[in-house]
Amino acid sequence: MISVNNNEAKRDQRKKDIAIIGLSGRFSRSGDISTLWDNLIKGKELTYLPGADELRSAGVSETLIQNPKYIVSKSLIDNPESFDYSFFGYSKDEAELMNPQTRLMHEQVWLALEDAGCNPHEYKGKIGLFLAASDDLNWRAHALINPNAQVGEFMATRLANKSFISTLISYNLDLKGPSYYIDTACSSSLASIHIACRNLLLKECSIALAGAACLITNDDKDIGYLHEEGMVFSKDGHCRAFDKDSTGTFFGEGVAVIALKRLEDALQDKDHIYAVIKGTAVNNDGSRKVGYTAPSVLGQ
């Protein structure tokens, strides 16, 4: 029989644990994490279903309004265009060209670091950045069609493209750890956390920031969808996760960042710890399902 020292086992596990030491975010009807938490405790629904008169004012046809399968459910950030560009050292012209998701993420990365009690310009260790953002081809097209003489063409393409979100912020805040843009479609935000944890465990950085942004950058924020049975979108404009009455989800806006550190280091540094990540993993269903976008029963 092999005996295992319980204290040693705990120490071995602790070496694999990741502490969440900072949080930031903006969501529908919740301008920060504390407001979101308060709304959740109170059971407030943070989506908004506009009435027929509002839809008519927005130019939606009467035929569409009267269609029972036509669903409009709003979940939008307040004042998404606000950006303190001078705080981050950008000019007004650069800020106007910058991808709106990159603007939001500059602020949330800073706030997550601030919540973690970390000044990136004074911190001696390496800080890694692992971010995701929704596709917005229309914004890149907008930047190309509307060039700004005060910003060089090469830099303008970098500012407007969400693929540069991580490296641009790392440059701006002088972050010297790994800087990744993550894109695994709907799982990008969780995948960014997984990769951030792996980088911490490999000691490629001392603090890792993981997050994602989703912002609708076209003029169709009021246009809904036609519900199709069996598809991903909800039939009533409500998202009821893990509920027997759940019929799907809908599209919305949001941005969030978490600051991570190896648990041993967080305890040693006396950081405030919100929670501990005991482990992460990534897999794929392969072809064991009825179609590419369908879930796998065995996988789930």
Annotation field: number of helices: 11
Class computed from helices, strands and strand pairing: alpha/beta
Please, what is the oligomeric state?
Answer: single chain
What is the 3D shape? Answer: globular
What is Rg? 22 Å
User: Which range best describes the helical content: under 10%, 10-25%, 25-40%, 40-55%, 55-70% or over 70%?
Assistant: 25-40%
**Run of helices and strands:** HEHHHEHHEHHHEHEEEHE
Residue windows where pLDDT falls under 50 for at least 5 positions: none
Tally of strands: 8
The neighbouring-strand order within the major sheet is 4-3-5-7-1-8
Key traits:
six-stranded mixed β-sheet, alpha/beta
Provide structural commentary:
Helix content is 32%, strand content 15%. The protein is of the alpha/beta class and 300 residues long. The strands form two sheets. A six-stranded mixed beta sheet has the order 4-3-5-7-1-8, with helices on both faces. A two-stranded antiparallel ribbon has the order 2-6. α6 packs across α9 (165-173). The chain starts with 5 loop residues before the first helix and ends in a 23-residue tail after the last strand. The model has no long low-confidence stretch (mean pLDDT 91).
